[in-house]
Design brief:
- The chain is built from 5 helices and no strands.
């Protein structure tokens, strides 16, 4: 019983340490992750398709998740002009929706709404993560 309890505590501390390292890594390279995620979203949103791929969930769910994940690196780092960058994500999302008809895709206002809801959810998730794993400022 004691060995099981100690192994659980050690395993839990290892998971916590790995989570801290992962979050710190994302904070360090937030620009790279943000650009990579936005490029992936733009490519997937503008690639012409005869029909949507057979993936679990609805199209709106995919939009919601994509933009929630897109916001996480930005909000985990929370740079000086984070709000302007956040608004630019929403503006770029709207731009993608507006130009989709030129790429044989269908533009939908509900997709934009799902994107905005995803951004808001991503901000909330990052806020909770930042409370649990605060940003430590190093003095240089």
């Amino acid at each position: 019983m004691v060995i099981t309890l100690l192994s659980f505590i050690f395993y839990k501390n290892t998971r916590l340490y790995l989570m801290k390292v992962l979050i710190q890594f994302i904070r360090e390279y937030w620009i790279f992750f943000s650009l990579l995620l936005f490029a992936l979203i733009a490519i997937l949103s503008l690639t012409p398709m005869a029909e949507l791929p057979k993936v679990a969930g609805t199209d709106k769910t995919h939009h919601f998740i994509a933009y929630s994940v897109l916001v996480l690196p930005l909000m985990l780092k929370k740079p000086k002009y984070w709000f302007i960058i956040l608004l630019s994500y929403i503006a770029l999302s709207g731009t993608i929706e507006l130009i989709q008809p030129h790429f044989n895709r269908q533009a939908e206002w509900l997709d934009l709404f799902a994107n905005i809801c995803g951004v808001i959810c991503g901000v909330i998730i990052a806020y909770i993560i930042n409370i649990c794993f605060p940003i430590y400022k190093t003095s240089n």
